[in-house]
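Subject: for your reference before the review

Hello V.,

The reviewers asked for a structural picture of the protein, and I figured it would be easier to keep everything in one thread rather than splitting it across files. Below is the amino acid sequence we used in the manuscript, unchanged from the supplementary table.
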Amino acid sequence: MTVRLFSWLSLILLAIVLGPSAAPAKAPARTVRLMTYNLNFGNLDLPATLEAIADADVDVVLLQEITTEWRDALKRRFSKHYAYHAYRMHHRAAGGIAVLSKLAITEEELWGPPAGTGAWFPAQRIVIAAPFGALQILNVHLRPALDGGSWVKGFMTTPPIRRREIEAHWKLMDFKLPTIVAGDFNEDDTGRAIDYLANHGMTRVPTSGPRTWHFETEVNGKPTDLLKLDIDHVMIDSHFVASDAQVLDAGTSDHRPVVVTIEPR
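And here is what came back from the structure prediction:
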């Protein structure tokens, strides 16, 4: 047998042993798709709003204004789709708060309205087992711009309350963990709570689409936004970049769902 023939036979045998070249392993997903959505405790059209959550099909859903009716409806619809969840009711009808997650929740705790701040509602701190490691999220529902039943007065008097409220929560965070703060801030992007977080290294994610909150009325028999503001926000720290940030024109709450994709830098 010649050397050349022996070489060819060796190559053929090697190819048979090794078989076809294996395709390179697909890299694991490094993103988390997150939604924040105030369902409105007085919203009676549950199916349309549940459908808005289902259609978005995100990894983590942060919810505000959860009532027992909302909790029960969410459990019926999403108990299999979101294997991890935590519902927290509150004595104020609009104070309930919740998280639904496809990713494991490794820590969850409720922080009551900080004493002495004028806050009304609790916040929910969650740690998620994200594809890139532990992710700390603070789900907030800050004090509405309402004072003594007056929105006009509340617009002037409540900004310092929200600032004190977020400061109190911020001091309890675990600063070793990458962090997101999201929810119903009840103020636009010039608000004092937003400014406080920005001064502590957080960045508000700008969104496309309609405003996050609208007060709707009828004009000539047609639904019309009488007032609209961006008061629901997602803020990220320097560990992350955000993309595909949208306000979805969906559901029947006075708030609209905000959806953001985040990934490590």
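For the response letter, the relevant points are probably these. Confidence is low (pLDDT under 50) at residues 11-23. The first helix runs from residue 3 to 18.

Happy to draft the paragraph if you're swamped.

O.
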